[in-house]
Design goal:
Elements (H helix, E strand, L loop, with lengths): L19 H11 L6 E5 L12 E2 L9 E2 L3 E4 L11 E9 L12 E5 L11 E4 L3 E3 L5 E4 L9 E2 L10 E3 L7 H9 L4 E5 L3 E7 L3 E2 L10 E2 L1 H12 L3 E8 L3 H12 L4 E5 L10 H8 E5 L4 E2 L5 E5 L2 E6 L3 H19 L10 E5 L10 E9 L6 E4 L9 H5 L2 E5 L10 E6 H4 L2
Parallel strand pairs: 5-6, 13-16, 13-17, 14-15, 17-21, 19-23, 22-24
Antiparallel strand pairs: 1-12, 2-11, 3-10, 4-6, 4-7, 5-9, 8-9, 18-20, 20-21, 22-26, 23-24, 23-25, 25-26
Helix pairs in contact: 1-6, 3-6, 4-5
Length: 420
Amino acid sequence: MSRQKVNSSSPMFSDSLMSADDALSFLIDAAIITNKTETVSLDDSLGRILASDIHSTINVPGFDNSAMDGYTIALDHNQTTQANQSFEVVDRIAAGSTGNDLKKGCAARIFTGAPIPKGANTVVMQEECKLSEDGSKISVERALNLNENIRPLGNDILESDVILCSGIQIKPQDISLAASVGVGELKVFKKIKVGVFFTGDELVEPGNPLSPGKIYNSNRYALVVLLKQVGCDVINLGNIEDKLDATCDALETLESQCDLIMTTGGVSVGEEDHVKPAVEKLGELNLWKIRMKPGKPLAYGKVNKTPFIGLPGNPVSSFVTFCIFSLPFIKKMQGNSNYESKISKVKTNFECKRAKPRREYARVRIDQSTEVPLANLFSKQGSDVMSSVVWADGIIEIPENTTFEAGTVLNYYPMSELTR
């Protein structure tokens, strides 16, 4: 691949800061759904993204059946207003078997799920029936209604119904529903391959001693686990030398193998930040500075035709920008129709007296002990304070250029939704 620099002509690229909303919209619009699919068994389908609608080829249930253990009776219409009636028991119908036709005034012992025999038109639960000593008759004290405790054909699903829609992330209940109509395999989107590497000569792998000026590489482990948790296959090149040529080599290695390339660090403007110029040499860079905190230097572009996202180097910035921006992008690429982050509303247990020019994604914990749940702010919100992410159960969105009092309602992203 040629290493000639390609100057971006995108209007989204400039030296000015871009709003978080515009950046997210731009990324989502840029995401292209994978066209690679495969067929997997029901046992292997959990968490995968369904690639085509599932139509039922049968009715469920396929026949009228009993909703409980009891007795099914062939009532005459004039018997529905009478109490204290007796019926002759002429048959026994277990689930999985079919009974004989019932004549008017006769009953059959029946069990849950067993087919209603021809002629029968109601089911009485066994607790309401008194059986004669010889077992030949039942008596019922109350008046009976037609169609009691009968589950009709197609009560759950009708033939040709769409029971599962393309784009859902398959859950246990979806698998059960597919099995109930006889579907044994599901067409799903193939897992996207994400190539990653990490820059910074200061980085040391955990387990090794630290020399002066060095730090442990926590971003490597966070990003790989986050990607795997949302169903990506990861090609991990690990730490690479903090030089332009080494960065270009890593990008070229991943470009031919992956659907997406991601990095942390090296997307700012320092002399040792080589990811941005490397991407520009091998492709194009469309945006790279967001009006947000933490995480201003977020990069998006392409290496040849492969999408590239460059996360910031600070651990909290990397984590937050992955959750807010990268995750919706990845979910859309995966074919997931539910790619937008789930946002709820919470009241703050803190105030903001000074308006700030950048939108802040602050780490908070919800206090459920109060009548109205309140969001408490972690005391340290620096982009290096990863303990704030561990402490928090969500991220609250503090709008730019805004002041507010305690009790103000703001957008809240539950951590459980931001990492899956």
